[in-house]
Amino acid sequence: MRSFVSIVFAVAALTLILPGSIIAQQDSDRIAAWFDYACFDYPPEEGKTLVEFYYGLLRHQMTFAMVDSAYQAMAFVWIELEDENGVVLDTLYKKIATRVESPAEMNNKNIKLPDQISYIMSPGTYVATLTIEDIESQSGGIPLSGKIGQRRVRVVVPDFKSSSLAMSGIELSYKIEALPANIEVSDYRSIDKSNRRIVPNPSRLFVTTDSSLYFYSEVYNLAFGLGVNKEFYVTCNILDTYGDIVSQFGTRRHIKPGSSAIVSSVLDIHDLSEGSYALSIEVTDAETGAKTKTDKPFQLLPSSIELSPGVDADSFTEEDAEYLSMVLEYILPKEQKKTLEQLDLEGKKNFFEDFWERTDPDPTTRLNEFKVEVFRRFRYVNDHYSVSIAKRDDGWKSDRGRVYIVYGEPDEIEKFPSTMDLNPFEKWNYHNLGSQGPAFFIFEDETGYGDFRLAHSDANGEPYDSEWEYLLEQLVQDGRITLH
Question: What's the DSSP call for residue 338?
């Protein structure tokens, strides 16, 4: 058995484009590309870690040429590795090919081509940039003149010197199947390990019609030996974006094959609705009681076009249109809101379909990251800033709700209680708001009931109050507050 270890996948927060500037460009020279990675223990070299980089593309986006009465497409794959200072350390390279028998097969949009490249690395933090180029679309054979797909991830490579119970990251997969008993290790494909063929899902995307989620992981440093309890337990849960459990798969007892063990299975996810989730796996050693846990985020997409979560275009109603208008209250420019008010139901449906298409930051993929983030922010402000505690449906109307929807989560929130001459207030700090750089927002609770009003900000186009600016300076000088 080969040892594997923990994935730390950093996903950059999506910044909404401010109203009036929402444009998404379609580029015929782009192809979809997905990128993920996992880190594994590597005993042959002490102090080193085996990193597997998973990538994938869609077959129908490749350019095919006739070869020996069949059709073949090829792609170059590069993974450039940099340290935290941007210094290029190495470039991994691979050439892949796929063949089909008929032109009809070329246009099948459901065929994905996942693969992986492995590399031995020292523990640390890196940046990996994936570039995939469709070879047949090159101009005169000139490199990087063809259709390109790119992805960039931050890579955290852990150190496995500790003797404590530890667990690898979770590799999400399209499918896991046992290899033939007589297969030799020399015949393994790049996606084979531990007597299994594991087809990686580098996108971490699933569709609501999918009923199965495959995963592979490993656990290390289990207590093992004569007279030692041979059992360990694995608990699997699905978490929502708040970390709450939405699906429980119970705890299963396993027998230790040694100090390391494989944790792999398939989970039924057919009853989950569209949204963002995380698979959480916890392992407990029955001998020592030690526990270790790791999570892996994934996204569940609708099988059909949805204008909002749970509402597809075919069943769109006036109530749905009103809801979408609320969600986009601070995103749509005034002119577009006026146009929307004058449309009939069919016109509104077409308006929202066109809006989501125009604002999709990466039209080559099924996931509209902009749309997902808009609804996440809308749900968040209702949960956290609603005056109506029972319904939690009016947080979007609050000043804090508007700022959160437009600018996203602040980098820092400073909270200050009331004093004899000062109401409670919060200072939201944003380290970088695009071209205007850093900015802050002051929210004051004038009534004492938690309904904070935006009193002052140095952000462009936001309310500015010179008295508040002076008050902040005085409070700092008097040593009554400390602002970061």
Answer: H
Q: Which residues contact 35 (CB under 8 A, 6 or more apart)?
A: 53, 54, 55, 128, 130, 151, 152, 153, 202
195: DSSP letter: T
pLDDT in tens, 280-306: 999 999 999 999 999 999 988 776 666
Q: Are 9 and 366 in contact (CB under 8 A)?
A: no
Q: How many residues does the chain have?
A: 484
Question: Which residue in the block uniquely carries the two structure tokens 């186009």?
Answer: 461
Q: 422 has which bridge partners?
A: 419
Give 365-398 pLDDT, tens digit per residue: 667 888 889 999 999 999 999 887 767 788 999 9
Q: Which residues contact 54 (CB under 8 A, 6 or more apart)?
A: 34, 35, 36, 37, 38, 114, 115, 116, 171, 200, 201, 202
pTM of the model: 0.64
3-state secondary structure of 53: strand
* Burial (0-12, 13-18, 19+ Cβ within 10 Å), 430: buried
pLDDT band at 15 (very low <50, low <70, confident <90, very high): very low
Nearest 10 degrees: Cα torsion 46, 47, 52, 53: -150
Cα separation, 243 vs 245, in Å, equals 7
Query: End-to-end alpha-carbon separation of the chain, Å?
Result: 51
Which residues are registered as beta bridge partners of 78?
93, 131
Which of 5, 49, 33, 367 lies closest to 169, judged by CA?
5
Pairing of β 166-167 and β 212-220 = antiparallel
Characterize the bridge pairing of strands 291-301 and 205-207.
parallel
Residue with tokens 């099924």: 366
Cα(191)–Cα(174) distance, rounded to whole angstroms? 12
Q: What residues contact residue 114 under an 8 Å CB cut-off, 6+ apart?
A: 34, 54, 55, 56, 174, 191, 199, 200, 201, 202
What would the two tokens of residue 243 be? 């970390």
Structural domains for the chain = 27-157 (2.60.40.10), 162-302 (2.60.40.3880), 410-484 (no CATH)
Tokens of residue 354, six digits: 């066109």
**What is the rounded CA–CA span in Å between residue 441 and residue 444?**
10
